[in-house]
Design brief:
Length: 481
Amino acid sequence: MSGMVDCNGEKMGIEKWTAKRRDFLRMLGYGAGAAALTPMMAACGGADASTGLDQMRAELVRDAAFWTDVENMFVLSRDKVHMNVGTGGSMPQVSLDTFAAKNLAKAQESGSGYGNLLELRQRVAPSFGVDADELAFSANTSSGMCHAILGLDWRAGDVIVTTNHEHGGGNTPMNIARDRYGVEISRVSLPVGNNQTAATYTNLFDEHIRGLKAQGKRVRAMVWSCPTYLTGTLLPIAELMEVVKSHELISIVDGAHLPGMMHFDYGALGVDFMSGAGHKWQCGPGSTGILIIRNKIRASNPLPLPTWFPVHTSTYSAAARTTTGTASYDIAASVTSCGSLHTPMFEALVASCELWDSIGRKKIETYDLALSSYLKEKIAERWGVEALYAPKDDPKLLSALTSFNPFKNKDDVMVSAKASEFVSRIRSDYAPGFEIRNASIPVIGAAANHNGLRISTHLWHDADDIDRLVDSMWDLAQKMA
Ligand SMILES: Cc1ncc(COP(=O)(O)O)c(C=O)c1O
């Protein structure tokens, strides 16, 4: 990519840089704090305003010493670059220490794990914009999706509107609800690539729901991933919540990748359920998750709370759900408590959450997205923008997951063995190699799924990692052609 940006941030011969792209780059400035400069401002201040990619790189390395210190808080092996955070994170040293100390103390004191972890929930909930009664600890995303979906009072003929890019963690409880209660699952087919905006999603869902209603169907809930695990597209929660509210639906977000990546205020978003992983981007121990449950009426979502029963619990309140701004009972306690828990796991998750708070959740989000944006631009520059399954230009759709087609012969992406070979060779043939993964992506109009590559960019990466990854992938793509 080449071109110049003038001091008003206006495009000067940069065919690929849209207004939205410039907005995103401005956004990078506010996220990183007062000292941060946007690339445009940096370019305007310097003598050598150069290419857009150079500006993005300059922005990324500006705080390099800080992010190197952050990287050193982790024990990741250096024999490869870990870029599959979307599958599993890595506990920072402080969480490992907390886990070890609490585990030892538990053994020494013959401790048990009864309770609902209220004190731990109180320490974490404000960072997610909710109260402790609205933040439960679950076993992982899948467990949270089961709590959410299987606890609702489904009736035969209810319709769940969801997408064709959902993960098994959400699909499985939806399928159980279908077979057990006669719920109908209706899927919106999602677009891929850069040619989409947040409005694409509000229109898709709204039109789909209107179509179902016109057939006399009783649409009751919307379930969507934010972001999807296949393309990394951040289906926009705030905008989709407007669709949810206009159709008076129950909202269930598979937010596996949200905790630790995106700094969202769930009280302000007003979602009924957001099921996130503790063990991915939030870098807590395995078998930890964070489930947000709307438990009081806030201005963000005036709809009544859905009737819901706990399905996996030792705490059952028969109280009705509140109709006011005051909770009638601690719903998160009923999700969190189920017999004796392994409390050191959750203590370690909280240590990781508190580390994120001390670094700054918005700062981490901004850095992750800046890395991801830099990667997406570099892919677009080398392979062409059409290689991307993840959109790059609408900041509302941007996550730290990037999926694309790396092959020189574009049709090779249909051959899953080739995609697997790419993933294993990018690990084995480069020193250090890269840990990434495949994603089997349904693409509208394609005869079969595309086997794209999926890359995660997180707080232990830097611009050099992206540069070397892109060069290595390019090199491997030529060798495999
Ligand atoms: C979108 C999505 N949902 C659910 C899951 C399942 O996650 P967990 O292992 O936390 O249950 C994943 C795992 O990668 C995912 O990407």
